[in-house]
Amino acid sequence: MTARNQKVLVLAACAVLLALAWGLWQRPSMAFWRTHETAPALILSGNIEAHESVLSFKSVQSRITELPFHEGQSVRKGDVLALVDSADYQQQLAIAQSNLALLQRQLDAARQNLETTGRTLLVDEAELRQRQLDRQRALDLQQQGFASKAALDQTETALQQAGAVLQRDLSVQTAAARGIDVAQAGVRNGEAAVALARIVLGYTTLTAPFDGVVNVQQAEVGEVVVPGTPVLTLSDLDHVWLRAYVNEADLGRVRLGQEVSVSNDSRPDKHYQGRISFIADKAEFTPKSVETHAERVNLVYRIKIDIANTGHELVPGMPADASMALRAAGK
Questions:
Q1: pLDDT value at position 60?
Q2: Which of 44, 163, 177, 190 could form a disulfide with 100 if both were Cys (CB 3.0 to 4.6 A apart)?
Q3: pLDDT at position 164
Q4: pLDDT in the model for residue 29
Q5: Residue 293, pLDDT score
Q6: Residue 91's CB: how many other CB atoms inside 10 A?
Q7: Could you list the mean pLDDT of each consecutive 10-residue stretch along the chain, which spans 331 residues?
Q8: Domains of the chain: total
Q9: Angle, to 10 degrees, between the axis of helix 149-202 and the axis of helix 87-144?
């Protein structure tokens, strides 16, 4: 055998050995020398979502006069997002306040009336005591023979009249006290009407319920809106999540609260800390808008991954990938 043929045989043998070694490396069960296996990881793809609130005016129907913020602008909690013409509702408040003032004056009059009846009763009681004394004197004089029967009858009649006047004024006092109760109830109703008018007037101003970003502007200045008409959609970018889907075979290897690393194409080198906060209990077919590593005909389970997004770098609709370490099956 020539030297050239020997070299060819050696090269062929080396190639066979390299192929065998590569095959063993790709099959961990046969590669006894791979003692440091990394934990298997699951890669999921999905889209960023955020809490969104569709904001509208409540209990008012009027024309929009101001829209200080537009799509894409950040707002703080309490910022005025929209105003409508409030002239009608200001007038309703003024009417309610006028009615309340009238009811308060009526209450004051009722209290004065009760005070007057109290003074009248003092006079009636004094008059009754005097008539009782007059009757007693007339009775004593008659017994001594100095007074006639007619004089005694007159004192008796005066006493009865004084008693009747006292009873009448007592009834007037009771009615005056009830009048105060009615007047006080009227004032309470008037105060409630003013409070309601203030609340309705407040509905003419639409404010931000939380810090966020105006996602959609559904109305324009000058447009007449009715209660419930969408005006703005506000997204809470401080609290976003990734909607993703897990294959049934991997479902038992993920868990609630599991830490997840999230990245997206716009910042491939940056990873966001996430946590699995929801795992669906019912399977569904993979949505067409979601790419997974399994065939689409397989059933998957929807999961929700909460992500810290303090810099507002992740926005709704943005595609993102999640990487998580899988637990060993059955653990």
A1: 92
A2: 190
A3: 93
A4: 34
A5: 46
A6: 12
A7: 56 61 44 39 87 91 94 91 96 97 95 93 92 88 81 88 92 92 95 96 94 90 93 89 86 87 84 90 68 57 88 85 73 52
A8: 3
A9: 170
Q: Does residue 189 lie in a domain region?
A: yes
Any idea which residue has 């889907």 for tokens? 245
Looking at the fold, whether 107 and 183 belong to one and the same domain comes out as yes
The CATH number of whichever domain residue 62 belongs to comes to 2.40.50.100
Instruction: State the Cα–Cα distance between residues 167 and 125, nearest whole angstrom.
Output: 10
The pLDDT value recorded for residue 33 is 30
Sign of CA dihedral 99, 102, 106, 108: positive
Distance in angstroms (rounded) separating the CA atoms of residues 191 and 93: 11
Q: Which amino acid, 279?
A: I
Residue appearing with tokens 């950040």? 74
Residue 104: give the domain boundaries. 88-195
Query: Looking at the domain assignment, is residue 237 inside a domain?
Result: no
Q: Based on the fold, state whether residues 106 and 182 are members of the same structural domain.
A: yes
Question: Would you put residue 215 in left (φ > 0), alpha (ψ -120 to 50) or beta?
Answer: alpha
Whether residue 204 contacts residue 56, with contact meaning beta carbons closer than 8 Å, is answered with no
Judge whether 124 lies within some domain: yes
